[in-house]
Amino acid sequence: MSWPARAQDANGDASTAAPTDVSDMWRLVRHKIPLDEQPPVDEDEGGHYFVLAPSIGSKPSTGVNGGFSSNVAFFRGDARTTHISSVSAGLKLSQKQQTLSGIKFSIFTEDDRWFLQGDNRFSWTSQNTYALGTGAGLAGSANLKYDFFRLYETAYRRVRKRLFVGGGLDVDIHTAARPGTSAAAWDQSAYAAYTALHGFTDDEQTSAGTNVGLLFDTRDNGINARRGWLASAAYRTFFKGFLGGDSTWQELSLDTRTYRKLTADARHRLAFRFLGDLVTGGTAPYLDLPENGGDGRSARGYGEGRFRGERMLYGEMEYRGTITRNGLLGMVAFLNATTVDSVEAHEKLFDSVAPAGGFGLRVLLNKRSRTNLCTDYGWGVQGSRGFYLAIQEAF
User: 229 lies in a domain?
Assistant: First the structure.
């Protein structure tokens, strides 16, 4: 039996070759099944799509790191009326003696009645700390070792088509904090100065509270979108004494993404993202201040926490294209910019901007969920650079 060589993508556009993923290539090599006889793609078909891949990279905050990343995608209802859901998990060990693990999920119930979102991290890690603001140089940085535990859980209810409102619980715990450099460097570090100025203890800091949020999502696929918008806003209030919280403060987080085709067959596309993370009241612990890379995927070219302050704005543009006509191999090129302000550093937003850019390759692991193996190399200012390997797109 031979399947048609031409396939319809999610936009209804005809591609010049049937999509091919790693599983198809395995069947070709192992079982001698020609590519034109592979099962066709039906993105309305239900089922569970699981991928597991090694994760090897190198970036300023971890050095060389290795481990694994996994992703499972599935539908909790009719695929024609229900967004695709995903759960991703990973475990890494790094050159800097870090153990990094986490589980993230985005689950839509039947007919998108509910949307459940979680970001949970459990790490024994370290990070270089710098003076606040985008203009902070490398001088005076000091390494901080600590254990990090995050539980961010939010439940959204659909109120109109594509529009959700919700709320949840947010907990960040940084414990067993200790110097990773000399005592002199530690005493003069930005972390020690900020902590002493605002009356926090330097060995353990906790922020715990609740959030309310709005979410508008018209994307065709949350794992690897080809069209649509995402716009979300979350207002978080952390309370002193709640689940061990050290201070009362408030934060507004904004996230907007959109995707545009450059060609009718969607082989060439542009993706745009804007992030805003703003402390609107109170005083946050140093490690809970808005920072670049806090979501784990933004600001490629820099280590997490390179720039930090009371308010942060971030923008990114990425070109996405396929190298092979069957979509097995792809590439990206990206540009991003971060600006942070700090009252203590007397720096306002856009007084200085930290740009970065780079490129990457993509391998299609699962054509039904559109899950890619992503390898990226990025460059920033002051010699910052990093190699990143992950499952799923950065946004």
Answer: yes
pLDDT tens digits, 260-279: 999 998 899 999 999 999 99
User: How does the average pLDDT of the chain come out, rounded?
Assistant: 89
How far is the C-alpha of 283 from the C-alpha of 252, rounded, in Å?
A: 14
Neighbours of 125 (CB within 10 A): 21
Can you give the CATH number for the domain in which 156 is found?
A: 2.40.160.50
Neighbour tally for 281: CB within 10 Å: 11
Q: Count up the domains in the chain and report the number.
A: 1
Six token digits for residue 12 = 């209804």
Taking alpha carbons only, the member of 331, 311, 308, 327 closest to residue 319 is 331
Give the number of other CB atoms < 10 A from CB of residue 368: 20
Q: Residues 172-178: what's their mean pLDDT? A: 96
66: left (phi over 0), alpha (psi -120 to 50) or beta: beta
Assign 194 to helix, strand or coil.
helix
Inter-CA distances, 368 with 41, 132, 341, 364, 385, Å? 6, 44, 42, 10, 33
Residue type, 262: L
Range(s) of the domain holding residue 74: 22-391
Count of other CB atoms within 10 angstroms of residue 47: 12
Outline where the chain has alpha helix (H).
22-31, 183-187, 190-197
Torsion (CA) 229, 394, 148, 107 in degrees, nearest 10: 50
Angle at 209 between CA 277 and CA 278, to 5 degrees: 15
Q: For residue 117, how many other CB atoms are within 10 A of its CB?
A: 21
The answer to whether the beta carbons of residues 40 and 30 sit under 8 Å apart is no
Sign of CA dihedral 125, 120, 276, 348: negative
Q: Which two tokens stand for residue 190?
A: 């930005």
Asked if residue 23 lies in contact with residue 314, where contact means CB atoms within 8 angstroms, the answer is no
How do residues 126-172 score in pLDDT, each as one tens digit? 999 999 999 888 877 889 999 999 999 999 999 999 999 999 999 99
Question: Please, is 248 exposed, middle or buried when counting C-beta atoms within 10 Å of its C-beta (0-12, 13-18, 19+)?
Answer: middle
CA–CA gap between residue 303 and residue 97 (Å, rounded): 16
